[in-house]
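As a warm-up, study this chain.
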Amino acid sequence: MKKASLFLGFIVISLLVSAQVTLKPTAGFNLSNFSQDPSSGQYKSQVGWQLGGSIAFGKKFYIEPGLFYTGKSTKFVSSGSSSADIAYDINGFRIPVAIGFNLLGNEKSTLSIRGFGGASAFIVGTTNNINKDALNNATFGAFAGAGIDVWKMFADVSYEWSLSNIQKDITAINVGKSRSLFISVGLRINL
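Now compare it with the structure written out below.
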């Protein structure tokens, strides 16, 4: 088993070293909310942001790990007149790993349309109006999306489903899992 894993690792590293490498500095925004609405109101998506980048390895088929500093924001809207609305902000590092396919064109084309999906981790950094100690330090998700490349620029749209609860203890209050729509733009720097 160790030999098979080592051999597979060697093949993957060999493919990545010989593959086309594209650096992708990125900025964008996101809309995030929680999956569980409490009986006294509901959670509504708010505009958040992200800044970071990724590195794509491959040509027609590619793998793309990334690192982004992300700010997610969700607003609790009270259904009663006695409670005030509250905006919850969670900032941290999002680490996605995408596997994609160029549906039209490739990494060197002037115009390319891509589809991709993958898994991600979100590591909590700072919070506003929510107790950081009540949150899981990391949550994990799955995402799917599409992108378009035009010359040296690109735009991506993806939707992420959290696979783990945001909170450590869901017996008192359960906000559920996060759901996020990401819209990103950036540059493609072929190496």
